[in-house]
């Protein structure tokens, strides 16, 4: 085989995103709080960026001459640094602006020291009033263990056992005791480990550090509890049958009546199968709506961006004059040009975000009016491509616009993604959303005869009677997603005729 080296010209088309285009998409994707943080970061890094501060308590305090989104001159709005053409046009525009500027630098729009001190105090108050970290499961158990008077060896292995417990797993002991001991351990060491486990299992919450569900429930049973022996029998030998609702089989093996087993099962439900889960930290997102949806006197929906807390940005007039000052050094002029370009792109990106988000929200609201008027059962199938076609943007732009954004509606605060749902067609050719099908499915199960519940095949037939043609596998999938048990598990054996 002959190998050779050479050059070959080949034409190909490759799509690349400019850094500034990437920045515009990033700004569009940011939710309100993240956008505020991004603006604050940019202002710290770019001295040419100024913001128009207005004291909410004094609405008339704004200087009439302060630039705003509506009053800025066209020259300022169109200011873009063009490095490819030596910035000739930009210098001309800047020169026209400089002629209108006062001879001294006007710092009336800079934040005063009092305002900066107020911001600092506000951040300090937020940190001081922040919720303290809740006590973890391990801390809670270690605290109880420290108050016990036990052998040092037992205490050490007990501490090791506690360190392996995870609240997210319910507080179960998943590590074999032998793995918690050093290599070459003896039978005596294993016995010490068993004693340490008994100590941990005696702590609160009851059932902690169990090795399986059966041990967890048994450790919660009080010797003086009603039906102690019967419940112990069910826990030891019939948990799987209980979970599958095979009550007749349990009755046949134990001699208990169906009514007794039903009563015992209700008692078992008072026990906690995951005792450590109560110490699991729950993340509650801080939701701030980006969009406000209101109805006017005629009942029409009006979309409004809730961006009052986003400051109006403009480029410092001082640095504009410095760019034309003959005393400015080339390095200073180059620095100002770069910062002007960066500032203008940020301002334009924020304006583009406002425009795109408003158009997307208006298109969504227009499509889902019935959902807003009548409720979840009236939601219409909607894909992001439909909104993209209507607004005239790419589908990825719609995806970024709705990502992590919330809208305040008369029906509460909802994520924008809530309005996008798949669907199918009825026999009449009408579109119906999956949410509507799920609601109908729940209604059918709520009203079924619990002595003879609907099978998935029967649910398909019932949905078909309501004009919804759905495959059996689809019914099964949504039933499981809705945490609805199978027909056998839903059967109430106390209602079954003997």
Automatic annotation (TrEMBL):
Domain RNA polymerase sigma factor 54 core-binding: residue ranges: 128-319
Q: Which GO terms describe its molecular function?
A: DNA binding; DNA-binding transcription activator activity; nucleotidyltransferase activity; sigma factor activity
Pfam families recorded for this chain? Answer: Sigma54_AID, Sigma54_CBD, Sigma54_DBD
Annotated signal sequence is: none
**What Gene3D superfamilies does the database record attribute to this sequence?**
Homeodomain-like, RNA polymerase sigma-54 factor, core-binding domain
Q: Which domain of life is it from?
A: Bacteria
Q: What is one GO biological process annotated to this record?
A: DNA-templated transcription initiation
Report domain RNA polymerase sigma factor 54 DNA-binding positions.
334-491
Please list the residue ranges that the record marks as compositionally biased, kind Polar residues: 97-106
Keywords attached to this entry? DNA-binding, DNA-directed RNA polymerase, Nucleotidyltransferase, Sigma factor, Transcription, Transcription regulation, Transferase
Q: What is this protein called?
A: RNA polymerase sigma-54 factor
Q: Which organism is it from?
A: Novipirellula herctigrandis
């Amino acid at each position: 085989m002959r190998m050779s080296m050479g050059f070959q010209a080949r034409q190909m088309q490759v799509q690349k995103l400019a850094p500034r285009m990437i920045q515009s998409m990033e700004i569009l994707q940011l939710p309100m709080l993240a956008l505020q943080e991004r603006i604050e970061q940019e202002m710290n890094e770019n001295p040419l960026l100024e913001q128009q501060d207005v004291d909410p308590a004094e609405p008339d305090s704004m200087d009439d001459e302060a630039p705003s989104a509506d009053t800025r001159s066209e020259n300022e709005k169109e200011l873009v640094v063009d490095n490819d053409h030596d910035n000739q046009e930009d210098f001309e525009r800047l020169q026209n602006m400089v002629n209108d500027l006062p001879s001294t630098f006007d710092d009336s729009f800079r934040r005063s020291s009092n305002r900066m001190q107020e911001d600092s105090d506000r951040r300090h108050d937020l940190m001081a009033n922040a919720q303290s970290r809740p006590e973890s499961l391990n801390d809670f158990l270690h605290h109880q263990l420290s108050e016990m008077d036990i052998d040092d060896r037992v205490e050490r292995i007990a501490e090791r056992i506690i360190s392996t417990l995870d609240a997210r797993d319910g507080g179960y002991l998943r590590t074999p005791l032998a793995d918690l001991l050093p290599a070459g351990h003896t039978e005596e060491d294993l016995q010490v480990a068993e004693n340490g486990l008994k100590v941990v299992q005696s702590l609160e919450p009851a059932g902690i550090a169990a090795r399986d569900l059966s041990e967890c429930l048994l450790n919660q049973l009080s010797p003086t509890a009603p039906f102690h022996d019967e419940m112990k029998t069910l826990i030891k030998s019939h948990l799987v049958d209980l979970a599958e609702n095979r009550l007749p089989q349990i009755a046949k093996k134990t001699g208990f009546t169906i009514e007794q087993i039903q009563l015992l099962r209700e008692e078992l439900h008072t026990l906690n199968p995951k005792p450590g889960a109560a110490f699991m930290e729950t993340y509650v997102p801080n939701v701030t709506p980006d969009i406000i949806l209101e109805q006017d006197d005629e009942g029409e929906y009006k979309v409004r961006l809730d961006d009052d807390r986003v400051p109006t940005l403009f480029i410092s007039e001082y640095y504009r004059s410095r760019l034309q000052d003959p005393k400015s050094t080339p390095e200073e002029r180059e620095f100002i040009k770069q910062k002007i370009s960066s500032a203008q792109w940020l301002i334009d990106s924020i304006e583009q975000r406002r425009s795109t988000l408003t158009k997307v929200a208006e298109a969504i609201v227009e499509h889902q009016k019935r959902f807003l008027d009548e409720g979840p059962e009236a939601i219409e199938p909607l894909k992001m491509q439909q909104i993209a076609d209507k607004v005239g943007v790419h589908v990825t732009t719609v995806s970024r616009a709705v990502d992590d954004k919330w809208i305040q509606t008369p029906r509460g605060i909802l994520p924008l993604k809530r309005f996008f749902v798949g669907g199918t067609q009825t026999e009449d050719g009408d579109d119906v959303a999956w949410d509507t099908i799920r609601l109908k499915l729940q209604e059918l199960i709520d009203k079924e005869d619990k002595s003879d519940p609907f099978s998935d095949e029967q649910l398909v037939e019932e949905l078909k009677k309501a004009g919804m043609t759905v495959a059996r596998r689809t019914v099964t999938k949504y039933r499981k997603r809705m945490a609805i048990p199978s027909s056998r598990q839903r059967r109430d054996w106390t209602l079954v005729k003997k």
